[in-house]
Amino acid sequence: MSTSPSVSLPGETMRRSFMRHRRPSATSELTSIVNKTRRKSNIASQNSPTKTKTKAIVTEIPTHSTMDSASKTPSGNQISNFGFAFDIDGVLMQKSTPIPGASECLRYLHDKEIPFILLTNGGGKTESARIQDLSEKLKVPLTLDNFVQAHTPFRTLEHLKGKTILVTGGDPIKCREISKSYGFKSVVIPGDLHVHHRSIWPFHYYPLDDAYRPEDYADDLPKPVREPGVDTEDTLKIDAIFVFNDPRDWALDIQIITDLLISRQGYLGTRSNKNGDKSLPNAGWQQDGQPQIYFSHQDLHWSTGYHMPRLGQGAFQGALCGVWDLMTKGKPLVKTTIGKPHAETYFYAERVIHHYRKLVLGEEGDRSNKLKRVWMVGDNTNSDIKGANDFSGKSSAQWPSMLVRTGVWHPERDGEPNPKPTAGIFDDVMHAVKYALEFETKELGKEGKDGWTDF
Ligand code: G3P
Ligand code: MG
């Protein structure tokens, strides 16, 4: 999580709130797992599946009873002490088309009850809608219990559920739907403001698709936007700003977001008299109860159907920071960003895979077979690979990272990957999974057990 230096670390509150709040489908012990995860985070596991050293040290000598009872899943599959975290765009999907081998991989892991999660910086749809779509396309059952989108962790921000939030990014109608599905009661989107207060942005954006005419989807505002001379208390106050995924109308969004960041207490259409006051921290910018701004990720590029990666939310964040830099004469924008590579998203993802593992392996299976490795398969060195490499040091499980050639990273264009994937570079997800299963089969072979040789 990157936060600017001068203001109290919003991350702290969020991290605490992350820890305090749990996913609807998650059970209460998730919180205990997290704390346990945190406490054990300094235990580096023995086996690092990096291409160089494959030294394996068997920790516990399994007893016969524990070996038999705890080494088979309820339906008789070999229990695994590892799992997978799959990125979506550029690994499993090219825009809305499955990448060859992706479906076979997930179906094999599903049938063998090897826990895996989908961990994407994508979003813009509710989790259930995205899962249904992906399950159909990848022909494998997916659930809320093994699926994490970039904005999913925002659902744990309970302290904002009773407040009024501004949400932008992607399909405006869906952004409101997602926010409501997370429990946020009062949600405003930029289109609402532009429809009810046209002069807030003098230009009108004509979306290619008529379905997105703001007039058609705008909701009434909880309170009117302040007009000069109107008592501020009775006007619209925004308590937090969320960017869920890739905004469509950058100009309108940047205008409204900067209006809120210079406002007094979040009252749109007001201006704080602390702005630019050099006697204050951050020269008075964002020092007057302005709404916090949360970005769900910072991917500059992402892999779509076009032959070159396209600009992502990170580019929007860059544009906004550029405008803010000009407005404040160089003051950094105080913001909170999650998503890969940020540790919060990996802590969240690890909670999800622990929870899912219990569902797949059963209580006993999960309890007696500690999760040792989560193989992270990604196409983006700045998010997938960096995130897993950094998190490996913070988690009790290892997160070996695998980079595929089917997405953002392109050897000819980008040269040597930096950061370097710890478990290697693979043509596609099929080869990556094959390598991991061979590694795990060898590990299991040391305990005289059969692994996964039929992949
Ligand atoms: O906007 C989504 C994109 O940035 C990346 O998605 O699945 O590759 O993490 P994914
Ligand atoms: Mg990707």
Automatic annotation (TrEMBL):
Any Gene Ontology CC annotation: mitochondrion
GO biological process: glycerophospholipid biosynthetic process
Superkingdom to which the source organism belongs: Eukaryota
Protein name: HAD-superfamily subfamily IIA hydrolase
Compositionally biased region (Polar residues): 25-35, 42-51
Pfam family, one: Hydrolase_6
Single GO term (MF): hydrolase activity
UniProtKB keywords: Hydrolase
